[in-house]
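Retro notes - structure team

What went well: the batch runner handled both jobs without manual restarts.
What didn't: labels got mixed up in the shared folder, which is why I'm recording both outputs here explicitly, each with its sequence directly above its tokens.

Job 1
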Amino acid sequence: RDAVTSVDFSLNTKQLASGSMDSCLMVWHMKPQSRAYRFAGHKDAVTCVNFSPSGHLLASGSRDKTVRIWIPNVKGESTVFRAHTATVRSVHFCSDGQSFVTASDDKTVKVWSTHRQKFLFSLSQHINWVRCARFSPDGRLIVSASDDKTVKLWDKTSRECVHSYCEHGSFVTSVDFHPSGTCIAAAGMDNTVKVWDVRTHRLLQHYQLHSAAVNALSFHPSGNYLLTASSDSTLKILDLMEGRLLYTLHGHQGPATTVAFSRTGEYFASGGSDEQVMVWKSNFDVVDYGEVLKVHRPPAPLATSSGSLPEVDFPIPPGRGRSQESVQSQPQEPTSMPQTLTSTLEHIVGQLDVLTQTVSILEQRLTLTEDRLKQCLENQQLIMQRTPP
């Protein structure tokens, strides 16, 4: 009944949760003709939703300054968590499900215990509203994005800020960890998306492809793709391996406010100020990479993309607002194909598969070589420092 602020899939992709400015939380069942649950409890707009890793719990944050943990079933029971003194913008469970992190307009990031149902500690170095906070895949780091134009990296154990990334020219709206845990991506009101290496703190990629603020982003579980939602009403899919734009998706009438890949990467969902939640099928990844997809490779370094790059532009198919079964138009199958051509094509596909895997292995070896070279140079500097003149 109002703008959609957030979406998230459960572990098995059987459920999709969405939050809205109408103060309600919806849990949609992915089966056709299944009824959706509408959860009421928050006293103001629901700004964020996140399923626990097991899918048995659902967290939501609100403009009413509270966080609620729901059991996503017919009863819709919830527990209220209070400690923030302003709007809660973001909520995210740790990978072990034992804790969750929140970000708020009170300029703090807070960590909570899920089962003990209590506030644990605050991270308080931002000097403006904090829009987003996320745990790293291993749960040891937290990243946060703020209206103070910075992205901060925190050590959960020491509770100290490890690094501040200050390259954004305006408010930073969304941030998340790459599935490998080695990189972060951040989106901003300056229409940009930036990718940093959390080990070297180097800027790896910079994209300026949207014509308005980028409101949300989501990594594909393979780590090869990044999905963005913008106030220019489009979604964009970026190929991180090649550092380029793959697709622009048109569907929302007005700003696209939120996006999320499913945990398997088979689907993604988007929400907008048009009150629509859309589910899309991720058929941009048609090649079966097999083992290669299981290896979380970090994005290719030093890529700068602008709107001049080639892309495929997809308008939404008829029947807007329903689940989008297919984003790409499928070519018609030829009626017949000579056997020799079929076997040749199969051979080429097989060779491409081998090449892809080879490139993956070479990339890994190159990274190892770079690390060893860096270590050698550091050792050499130490030896020179110790050697008397």
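Job 2
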Amino acid sequence: MADEELEALRQRRLGELRAEHGDPSADPSQQEAKQREAEIRNTILAQVLDQAARARLSNLALVKPDKAKAVENYLIQMARFGQLAGKVSEQGLIEILEKVSQQTEKKTTVKFNRRKVLDSDEEDDY
């Protein structure tokens, strides 16, 4: 086998392995598409939110990225369907956050299993 053919096989196999394991550097077109999508999202959010609300959403994204993503999706959907009148203030964002929290609320239950201890009166426990 020629060196060029061997190198081409290696590069192709390396690309396949990167794609299988989700390496973002594997496909530059996918990386560009994700970057364009992020720019579009940021543009829409900049048009929809005022400065204080945008800062609050940024802080939320640092702590709970999944909840921030859900709120962003909700805001973008509302903007696309024309359900927003003007920019959303910080108080409006708080209301949206509460609504999203109620929808995604996980109910936790705690169950206590109390073990019955056989305690006889004949034995004195000190």
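One thing worth noting from job 2: The mean pLDDT is 82.
We'll revisit the folder naming next retro.
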